[in-house]
Amino acid sequence: MIVNTGKTKEKIMAQTKEKTVYVCSSCGAVFDKWSGKCRECGEWNTLEEEIRKPASPKNERIAPASDGTQKSMRLSQIPAGYTDGIRIKTGIGELDRALGGGIVKSSVILISGEPGIGKSTLLLQLAGSCCENGGGRKILYVSGEESAAQIKLRAQRLGVQNETLFLLCESDVDAILAEVDLIDPDILIIDSVQTVFDRSVSSSSGSISQVKQISQLFIARTKSSSMATVLVGHVNKDGAIAGPKLLEHMVDVVLHFEGDRTRSYRIVRAAKNRFGSTNEIGVFEMTGEGLEEVSDPSMRLIEDSPKNVPGNCPVCVMEGTRPIIAEVQALVSKTPFPTPKRIGNGTDFNRMAIILAILEKRLGLRLYDKDVYVNVTGGLRLDETSTDLGIAAAVLSAATEKPVPSDMIAIGELGLSGECRAVPGIESRIAEALRMGFGRILVPYRSIGKIKIRDADGKLFPVRSVFNLGEYLG
Fold it and tell me: Could you tell me if residue 11 is inside a domain?
């Protein structure tokens, strides 16, 4: 006879008891105790508490039976037309640009953005456009956040009404995959991956374990067919995609939906793309009828530019292969307080501080007793150093009350000595400025000899350093 001792009973109870663990939201590492810093990836304050049930006993691993047929093939054996028609055109030109030409079959796309930025609106428009222009492609739109009536109301506002668009309001991954098997859609949209749950995982939906498990199931189903899957991911307070960082490595394409909810312009930017460039962006404007494509963002961003007002200067940035002209505004006002304010909206604050220091040191511009505000219109964020000359011109114009001529644009990087340095893509920037009607284009002095644009004769003004800026102000 076998007698269970008290210790044996305690051991059995411990094996069947739920366990509290701490999972890193950045790398997915699991720890028994909480700590401020993850010992695996080094990130701070990323450990989140999870309650896990004991794992069931694992069966022995069974190797799949082989039928003796070789499944791999040489690269040279792949037919020449194998990739023909592998991309699905969405019918939304700006989105296709960001994707590198369209949605690739058997790919998984992760799109993220702040709440209310327009993710669901864009995906519903994508579904309607693919159904209309894709020759009857079937789209399965799965929502775990809204009811069918709510989505129907949005679809009516956007004018989306197609017989090949199927809607499923469900959060159980098994039910979703069963519906996928029945419909066999060309594109599957999951809005959002944080709301879907797997009953075999004990943690709540949206947890790291759930997001990882759900993503693996959808990716496995996608790769085994010609269906493409679009996952919507929430963002945390820092703007990063919620869930483990591993999620971004698992998918094929990562799109970030950027923009200020208080403004109308939205930008779709690719952070990762296995099938195309990550330099291209798509520009949209939020209207009452949904997201409208902005094929000429330069015109939209400067069409309301004031004339002969101090503190305004256009600049040109490169977003992938597309040059975009934006307007930098500056305001300089005397402050009664001992510490003046420095506020930059749409530009890098540290870069702005360097430019102000250059103007003070090299030009002797008195800014230590004045508040300086720099703003980029349209909600665009300028991170390029090619905007240095334009920011300096706007601040100098605001400080001296001399307006920048309405037909002038500034392109160039500033060094700490005040010199104006060359920037890449200068010819594309100049061509865009000429197309928009600018007659005076300030460019770095050393770039003059490299420019071979005939229409630019007499319209290029070389700048050696910030000392030349005063010559071009009104």
Answer: no
Residue 12's pLDDT band (cuts 50, 70, 90)? very low
- Residues with Cβ within 8 Å of residue 119, at least 6 apart in sequence: 111, 112, 113, 191, 232, 257
Does residue 192 have a cis bond before it (omega within 30 degrees)?
yes
Are 414 and 420 in contact by the 8 Å Cβ rule? The answer is yes
pLDDT over 90 at 328, yes or no: yes
E-assigned strands of 238-368?
Answer: 253-258, 265-273, 281-287, 290-293, 312-319, 322-334, 342-345
| Domain co-membership, 325 together with 454 | yes
Q: Are residues 253 and 310 in the same domain?
A: no
Tokens 């307006």 locate to 403
Q: What is the mean pLDDT of residues 423-444?
A: 92
Contact yes or no for 257/284 (Cβ under 8 A): no
In a domain, 195, yes or no: yes
The CATH code of the domain that includes 243 is 3.40.50.300
User: Can you say how many angstroms the Cα of residue 68 is from the centroid of all Cα atoms in its chain?
Assistant: 46
Q: What is the mean pLDDT of residues 196-221?
A: 87
Distances (CA, A) of 215 to 182, 209, 431: 20, 10, 44
Angstrom distance (rounded) from CA 460 to CA 439: 8
For residue 199, which of 166, 218, 175 has the smallest C-alpha distance?
A: 175
- Choose the weakest-confidence range: 35-39, 330-334, 411-415: 35-39
Task: Give pLDDT, residue 1.
Answer: 46
Quick check: is 134 in a domain?
Answer: yes
Domain count of the fold of the chain: 3
pLDDT at 279: 78
Residue 155 has pLDDT above 60, yes or no: yes
The length of the chain in residues reads 474
Residue 76 lies in a domain: no
Query: What CA–CA distances, in Å, run from 301 to 283, 326, 327?
Result: 11, 6, 7
* Residue pair 139/155 in contact by the 8 Å Cβ criterion: no
Single residue among 267, 295, 323 that ends a domain in this structure: 295
Tell me what pLDDT residue 231 has: 94
Note down the domain range covering 22: 17-52
CA distance 160 to 325: 33
57: pLDDT strictly greater than 70: no
Is residue 247 domain-shared with residue 379, that is, in the same domain? Answer: no
119, 246: one domain: yes
Residue 245 vs residue 131, higher pLDDT:
131
> According to the model, what pLDDT value does residue 242 have?
62
